[in-house]
Amino acid sequence: MNILETKKTSQEISQLLSASLPKAVSYQEYRATVSALVANGLSTGTVQNDALANYTLLNDKRMKRLDKTLKFSEDIIEGIAKINKKVTWLVLTESWCGDAAQTMPVMNKLASLNSNIDFKVILRDENLALMNQFLTNGTLSIPKLLMIDDATNTVFSEWGPRPSKATQLVAEYKNTHGTLTPEFKQDLQIWYTKDKGVNTAEDLLAGLLLE
Predict the structure, then answer these.
(1) Which InterPro entries does the entry link to (predicted)?
(2) 1-41 pLDDT, tens digit each
(3) What are the structural domains, with CATH classification, of the chain?
(4) What is the pLDDT of residues 163-204, one digit of tens each?
C-alpha cells in the first residue's frame, strides 16, 4: 500500500475532498453495507480473509449495540446544538477496524443532534490520495474524521484514530512493551465499553469548537 507523506497545499486538499465526497455514503448506508458483508462472510477492501471477516462480524455487533444504547450528557447535547455553520464530517474507515466500530456510532449520533452537521463515510483504501494527507505518525491509521467547512471546502479539524484517553493508553503501553499485544487490544475494547462513548464525544465537540 502506497503511503505518500508529501503534504499538499490547502487548494490541492480541497480538490481531493471534491473528488472523494461524491463517493461518500451515509452512516445508515454504511451500516447496511457492513451487515451485508457479514451475511456473506466478507469485509470491505480487496484483501479478504477469515480474520478480517471475523473482525467485521464483531464490529457489526458493536455498532448495533452502540446505536441502541448511546446517551450523551446535557453539556455535550447543548454544545453540539450551538454549532450554527454547515459542516461535513467525513470519516475514512474500513469494516474490520475495531476503533472505528467503537467511535462511528458516536459520530453519527452527535451529528443527528444538529442538522448543520452532515456525517458521511468513505473507505480508506478507495481514497488513499486523501488518506495520505491525514496520516497519524506516518501511518494510515483509521478511523480518521475530517471536519470540513462546507462554505470553503476546507478541513478545519481532524480526529482519530482513537479518543484522547485511549490514545494515551496506547502510547503508554507501546513505550513499555514496544508493540500492542492481542491482550492489550482486548483490554482496549473493554475500555471502550466502560467509557460508553464519552471521551469520543468530548473530543469531537472540542474539534468542532476550533471552527
Answers:
(1) Thioredoxin-like_sf
(2) 555 556 788 899 999 999 999 999 999 999 999 999 999 99
(3) 10-208 (3.40.30.10)
(4) 999 999 999 999 999 999 999 999 999 999 999 999 999 999
SS (H, E, C) the chain: CCCCCCCCCHHHHHHHHHHHHHHCEEHHHHHHHHHHHHHCCCCCCCCCCHHHHHHHHHHHHHHHHHHHHCCCCHHHHHHHHCCCCCEEEEEEECCCCHHHHHHHHHHHHHHHCCCCEEEEEEEHHHCHHHHCCCCECCECCCCEEEEEECCCCEEEEEECCCCHHHHHHHHHHHHHHCCCCHHHHHHHHHHHHHHCCHHHHHHHHHHHCCC
Amino acid, single-letter form, for residue 110: L
Q: What is the pTM of this model?
A: 0.94
